Amino acid sequence: MSSIFKALLLFLLCHGVNVLAQNKITLKSPDGKLVFAFKLTKEKPLYQVSYKGKLLINDSELNLQFKEGGNFGTNLKALKPIFSDVNENYELAVGKTKVVRDLHRQVIIPLVHPAGSERKLNLVVRAFNDGIAFRYEFPVQKNWSEYTLTDENTWFNIVGSPKVTTLLFDNYTSSHEGLYQKQSLTELPENKLMDMPALFEFSDKTYLAITEASLRDYAGMYLVKKNGALKSQLSPWPGQQEIKVKAVLPHQSPWRVLLISDRIGALIESNIITSLNEPTKLKDLSWLKPGKTSFHWWNGDVLPDSTISPGINFETNKYYIDFCARNHIEYHSVIGYGGIAWYPTNGPGYGDPGTFSDVTKTVPSLDMQQVCDYAKQKGVGIHVWINWKALYPQLEAAFTQFEKWGIKGMMVDFMDRDDQEMVKIQEEILSSAAAHKLFIQFHGSFKPTGLSRTYPNEFTREGTYNYENNKWLAAGISPEHDLDIGFTRLLAGASDYHLGGFRAVRPDLFKTHYVRPMMIGTRCHMLAMYVVMESYLHMAADYPEAYEGQPGFDFLQKVPTTWDETRVLDAALGEVLTIARRKGKDWYIGTINNSTTRTIKVNMDFLGEGNFQAELYSDAPDPDTDPNHLTKKIKDITGKDVLEVKLASGGGQVMRIISK
Hints:
Elements: H1 3-14, E1 24-28, E2 34-40, E3 45-51, E4 54-66, E5 70-72, E6 77-78, E7 82-91, E8 99-113, E9 119-128, E10 131-138, E11 146-158, E12 163-166, E13 168-169, E14 181-184, E15 193-194, E16 198-201, E17 207-213, E18 221-226, E19 229-234, E20 245-248, E21 251-252, E22 255-261, H2 264-269, H3 272-275, E23 293-294, H4 296-299, H5 314-326, E24 331-334, E25 336-337, E26 340-341, H6 368-377, E27 381-387, H7 388-391, H8 395-405, E28 409-413, H9 420-435, E29 439-442, E30 458-461, H10 479-487, E31 504-505, E32 519-520, H11 523-532, E33 539-540, H12 544-547, H13 553-558, E34 565-572, E35 576-583, E36 586-593, E37 598-603, E38 611-619, E39 630-638, E40 642-647, E41 652-659
Parallel strand pairs: 23-33, 24-27, 27-28, 28-29, 29-30, 31-32
Antiparallel strand pairs: 1-2, 2-3, 3-4, 4-5, 4-11, 6-8, 7-8, 8-9, 9-10, 10-21, 10-22, 11-19, 11-20, 12-14, 12-16, 13-15, 16-17, 17-22, 18-19, 25-26, 34-35, 35-36, 36-41, 37-40, 38-39, 38-41
Helix pairs in contact: 5-6
């Protein structure tokens, strides 16, 4: 056998090319454990996905339906595939990891529809060690300049009947919030919209999560079950149901992402979502300052019983600015008061902008320049809440005025859509805000798709059924729901969760309070949420007197919101989750528990060599008496230690580890 032939054979085997059939192509992950297999039949393109030799997704169709020219799936011709390998590092300005290794193999499979039109489409596939991603690319071509997509028939024919953790919706108008449903794939109802990420647990404890990355100028995707299999379902343009996407070539779909591992913590650690997004084009990022923020709407606009006049005024904001300045809280939110916005509007409340709004001005009782100047003097940044319908018609004028006032960013709320038009609006907001050195916090919005790499001024998104619901939900948000969020929604990226409630009660004593809401789960559970939940703008949403002098508040003051490294140390779906995150030389470790008391062991070997000092905040022995009680201990440790952690029902534990 000649050396040239040997080299060629080795290349084909490494990249999984089936040399016996032109229309069969396989792509393996760098470690060889994940395999994407593509084959082209006369009727349709099909793909399979296997992990460690086990088939997870059986023959699944890839077929696009266009208003002009019908479907793109039958009688296709596959041209020569193009393979490549990538092994490079990139940095994230904001994220759970500072330096990311992007290691993957890629194949571009050109597909041509020869029936007269000669339309060409590229199926681009990437295989990572922790997942598979693919998307449709529409290159420039002389016979095809634009398209109107009526359906994207991307199928996921999952093998067997794994347990599914997902959100189900009846329509596309949604804030993407709800309680997760858990049932087998067989039991899952047909024709319901499944939000993403959706998590699938196989009987052998292999985990698969489906979501999307780099959602830009395209419709958001759901999953629907039809005839036992799952298919993509795109959000339609407003006011009709037929048209999903309108585009001019060149164009591409978002990446369809399959996170896969037999260690569920690997799905949380994965950086595939950001790796599938474009690097930022912003040259100067020095103005980006992630941090924590006040948010007095959540606590019910609480003010002290004093001479302060409550309302949309300087004194109300000064009270919270002074609190932030005293306690190293980087931002204060200017919202309004009592449901009335800080800007002129004839809308009846925060959720309705009415027929008139002017976000370049303030109501007569508020001087925004005075608020911003005072906050700057105190070392606190100002960001504002705003309804998107009030903002968008004045986008450039608003951002110009915000920059002039000295505002640092904003929460853009009540978006409640993910059709192509809304997706483009959100990117326009991000792009324009970046030009004015403003960060964005999207609320009432769909999941993140990794755009924080391209637009690092995207600090966080809501899209979670979070602690705001404790203001009106009879049963309150449970520790089990927190874990559902950690194992599903967290896979997509940052989640704004209204953290910081410091009034924990036993579940049987919980009552809805619109002002000073109660919490289920211990004080340590809440502290751990600052580590477990990823967000670059965590809230300290309670009022000042709820925090100052309270046990555990010192940890809330110290904990960062962006990280250099993330590791999942312990993870049992629905039971317990321990995440370690590093900032500089310091490690922060958070553990959240469900309602079952348990003891776990946390191996500190990830610390490596050296001596360390650990600050340990743990559930007190009397959680049934007062779940706000905690113990704080300082202990010398090394990487050889294994720490025993006792967790109360709904409990938690946090550590801050400092190199000595």
